[in-house]
Amino acid sequence: MTRYSEPPVESLNTGKGAVVGQNWRSLWSLDPKITFLNHGSFGACPLAVLERQWVLRSQMEQEPVRFFALELEPLLDAARQDLATFLKADAADLAFVPNATTGVNTVLRSLCISNPDRASLQPGDELLTTNHEYNACRNALDFTAQITGAKVVVAEVPFPIEAPDEAIAVVLNQVSPRTRLVLLDHVTSQTGLIFPLQSLIRQLTDRGIEVLVDGAHAPGMIDLNLKALGATYYTGNCHKWLCAPKGAAFLYVQADRHSHLRPLTISHGANSPRIDRSRFRLEFDWTGTADPTPYLCIPDAIQFMGSLLPGGWDALRQYNRATVLTARAGLCKALDVAPPCPDSMIGSMAVVPLPDGSAEHLQASLFQRHLEVPIIPWQGSVNRLIRVSAQIYNTPADYDVLTEAVLLLIKEEKGI
């Protein structure tokens, strides 16, 4: 793993952890003409990590047979161990997948298959989720229900929301004797909420219900402890807030559920005669020829992002959270709206309700002004939301420019 030096000491305010005088954006290849406030959608990989990926790709292409047959397995093991340490999990319980959507699909597809330890989903079984679930994963849930005869049940978590307990009550109220699995976001994509998973998972598992967490945004945004969290399955992206290359994600599976899971692609590991590695590892580590370098760069991304501030990852998470809360407060004040959720439910993304109108038109108008920020349609008391992200390369001036543009465009929509 490449080691990165700390930024110059003079670029840091050692009093309160604030960043001054450092051009953090120069560490990324982001278009300088764009005010980029949408790290949450696809992340952005630092130049130094991309350089490490180039080295690994060169190693792969210099002698592909040697790389895949001899070098890849120990490289994957080392990367998985570093990721496990970061997530506070056992490496044996982690499998690499290209994205969290694949992780969700892997678990759901496995529910359709009977095995000696567990029966498959049956007609009338219930799959519980919320109205905040990411569309791609909701589609996977609906597909699973269609082919098994199971039923998707949706808990309508309110938004705006006043307290985490509201989400807990609504979800638990939808649990029934037929509930087989609950799919929950850790950080909701549309509304930027951190769901109160610790309490929800404990109460659901006490009732014998499996919990699958879609943690697409959580790694790098939240200080994760997967062992303590207790989810049956947890999948998360490493290309978002960890800033690894695109195509890097993981699936965590509790040890007693390994035999329940098969990868989406069945390959050589299904009948491998090897006994030095688990069947879980053999199947998930090789699903066919692909570029594994995003996985191998995860340790470099962890180390690089953790080296930017003297306080490491804790300081980075705190800095990004403080930045986005300040940005949200500024937007709320300018738009004369109340914050739609308590600060305790915010990480590095936040949304603010907007006056009714076309989400698509407003987003296009903002991009014409070189502002990259999502305007999200919503079904509730308001019909569109603006979602801002905060990564260390963002500055207060970015959000000032955004606020000014939003106010101007809303006035234009109203014909003022």
Automatic annotation (TrEMBL):
<dbReference type="Pfam" id="PF00266">
    <property type="entry name" value="Aminotran_5"/>
</dbReference>
<dbReference type="GO" id="GO:0008483">
    <property type="term" value="F:transaminase activity"/>
</dbReference>
<dbReference type="InterPro" id="IPR000192">
    <property type="entry name" value="Aminotrans_V_dom"/>
</dbReference>
<protein>
    <submittedName>
        <fullName>Aminotransferase class V-fold PLP-dependent enzyme</fullName>
    </submittedName>
</protein>
<keyword id="KW-0808">Transferase</keyword>
<keyword id="KW-0663">Pyridoxal phosphate</keyword>
<dbReference type="InterPro" id="IPR015422">
    <property type="entry name" value="PyrdxlP-dep_Trfase_small"/>
</dbReference>
<feature type="domain" description="Aminotransferase class V">
    <location>
        <begin position="74"/>
        <end position="269"/>
    </location>
</feature>
<keyword id="KW-0032">Aminotransferase</keyword>
<dbReference type="InterPro" id="IPR015421">
    <property type="entry name" value="PyrdxlP-dep_Trfase_major"/>
</dbReference>
<dbReference type="InterPro" id="IPR015424">
    <property type="entry name" value="PyrdxlP-dep_Trfase"/>
</dbReference>
